[in-house]
């Protein structure tokens, strides 16, 4: 997969302030919610807004063969929503592509 263009124009480095103690980055929460019967959805909250979420969504959908979209919420900001239980896949994707540190990812669900 080609992930070179995930950052918005301007060459944003998501880990440029990772070592600063005074500025703590927010955690990324990965949750699974039961819909009906055997169906469930996975939501991802807290991904850095400087990333182009449309491109991240497109790569994840293609790599893990699932559908997804971006939800705009007043309190939580932009939330990625995926079809099925994708908790492990999303966490692994974020770590492997250096979009988030392992310590910053919180996985919730049954």
From TrEMBL:
| Protein name per UniProt | SUI1 domain-containing protein
The keyword Protein biosynthesis belongs to this UniProt entry's keyword annotation = yes
Matching entries from PROSITE patterns are given as: SUI1 (PS50296)
**Record bears the keyword Ribonucleoprotein:** no
Say which family it is in: Belongs to the SUI1 family.
**Superkingdom of source:** Eukaryota
Which UniProt keywords are given for this protein, alphabetically ordered?
Protein biosynthesis
Q: What GO MF annotations does this protein's record show?
A: translation initiation factor activity
**Any coiled-coil regions, as ranges:** none
The species this protein belongs to is Diacronema lutheri
**Which region ranges are annotated with the description Disordered?**
1-25
Residue stretches making up the SUI1 domain = 28-98
Q: Which Pfam families match?
A: SUI1 (PF01253)
